[in-house]
Amino acid sequence: MTLSRFIPDRFILTMLGVVALASLWPAQGRMEAALATVTNLAIALLFFLHGAKLSRQAIVAGMGHWRLHLLVFGCTFVLFPLLGLLLKPLLQPLVGTPLYLGMLYLCALPATVQSAIAFTSLARGNVPAAICSAAASSLLGIFLTPLLVSWLLGGQGEVAGSTFDAIEKITLQLLVPFIAGQLARRWIGAWVARNKHWLRYVDQASILLVIYSAFGRAVNEGLWSQIPLRALLMLLLCCALLLVLVLALVWLLSGLLGFDTEDRITILFAGSKKSLATGVPMAQVLFPAAAIGAMILPVMLFHQIQLMACAALAQRFSRRPQ
């Protein structure tokens, strides 16, 4: 096991740099309004490209494995939220209320698509089923995440507007561009596939822009005066604890239900992940400006921890006998 596996990748380091930039020089006044417009366009482009990348043939190939998909969805939208609630007596005193609510938001998010598929492929799991589960989780999350957030955080006064208003906004901002990308796939799909190496920078730039905008607004509302350094360190520990618990429970459940090794690998990687690409834009719709920073901090930290842990697991699975 090499040391580099535990060093944050360039994108994570860039995210941290963007957070620092937003903390020191947040956008204000007209620049903040213009940035909000550009950010909304960037989010739409991000999900348009996600739609254009996703092969319908691959989705159809994996759709028949319904037991696997039900377990993945159960882990993503049931197990995670239940753990978030059950761990409240431990987590809330360690990180404070704002960051604990951010962890509940993390628990309500859908699975990530790209890394779940990549790790399943590396570990020699059931790739078609991983594609189907991860993609369906992202789409279901557009509707389920606002409902879960309303249930988990509704009594905490952090949700902006009604649940149905949030679903409508998320549908327009995320789902409509995704569907447009799917429809345009017949014309641009081959071009997107040929240029996927540099198009990933469009994805990353969109996420960085959203993070700068979100953190800038939160800093203007006094984010760092509300969250001490100790709470941030404890948050890192709590995110690692949550991931370890989920990985152990998902692996145990998939074994008890009789899945073979390839399917268990798929369930492990698709059912234990949470999407940064969906979580950050969605937070802008669901929460008021003052709360956004604390809501996405757990998502950012969990994202890096899950990448490092799953990379190590995938390498280990890949070395098993054929």
TrEMBL record:
<dbReference type="GO" id="GO:0005886">
    <property type="term" value="C:plasma membrane"/>
</dbReference>
<feature type="transmembrane region" description="Helical">
    <location>
        <begin position="66"/>
        <end position="87"/>
    </location>
</feature>
<keyword id="KW-0812">Transmembrane</keyword>
<protein>
    <submittedName>
        <fullName>Bile acid:sodium symporter</fullName>
    </submittedName>
</protein>
<feature type="transmembrane region" description="Helical">
    <location>
        <begin position="201"/>
        <end position="219"/>
    </location>
</feature>
<keyword id="KW-1133">Transmembrane helix</keyword>
<feature type="transmembrane region" description="Helical">
    <location>
        <begin position="231"/>
        <end position="253"/>
    </location>
</feature>
<dbReference type="InterPro" id="IPR038770">
    <property type="entry name" value="Na+/solute_symporter_sf"/>
</dbReference>
<dbReference type="InterPro" id="IPR016833">
    <property type="entry name" value="Put_Na-Bile_cotransptr"/>
</dbReference>
<feature type="transmembrane region" description="Helical">
    <location>
        <begin position="7"/>
        <end position="27"/>
    </location>
</feature>
<feature type="transmembrane region" description="Helical">
    <location>
        <begin position="131"/>
        <end position="153"/>
    </location>
</feature>
<dbReference type="Pfam" id="PF13593">
    <property type="entry name" value="SBF_like"/>
</dbReference>
<keyword id="KW-0472">Membrane</keyword>
<feature type="transmembrane region" description="Helical">
    <location>
        <begin position="99"/>
        <end position="119"/>
    </location>
</feature>
<feature type="transmembrane region" description="Helical">
    <location>
        <begin position="33"/>
        <end position="54"/>
    </location>
</feature>
<feature type="transmembrane region" description="Helical">
    <location>
        <begin position="285"/>
        <end position="314"/>
    </location>
</feature>
